[in-house]
Design a protein that fits this description.
Layout: E1 3-6, H1 8-19, H2 26-34, E2 38-41, E3 47-52, E4 57-66, E5 69-79, H3 80-83
Parallel strand pairs: 1-5
Antiparallel strand pairs: 2-3, 3-4, 4-5
């Protein structure tokens, strides 16, 4: 199993989302990476994993695979209606 590392930016982003009433944990991010609903290419070598959180929201996680590690670059919540329109 690959080791998942978080940047300081990601940890700050999780804290900000929680402060604004949108609960996200590192375990939720890990689950999104280990069992995504979909994965799509992002800019350059980055990839984006998406996982449904509830009936209306998804968690989108931007990451890079570096050898045996996965480095999480950023994450953001989104509305399912926006990101689940077209299958990849």
């Amino acid at each position: 199993m690959r080791h998942i590392r978080f940047t300081d930016h990601v940890r700050t982003k999780i804290a900000v989302l929680n402060a604004h009433g949108f609960p996200v944990t590192e375990d939720m991010v890990r689950l999104s990476l280990r069992s995504p609903d979909r994965v799509e290419p992002a800019r350059g070598i980055r990839k984006l994993a998406q996982k449904a959180l509830d009936a209306t929201h998804v968690l989108r996680v931007v990451y890079v695979e570096a050898g045996q590690d996965i480095l999480v670059i950023t994450l953001y919540p989104g509305r399912r209606t926006r990101y689940e329109k077209d299958p990849v």
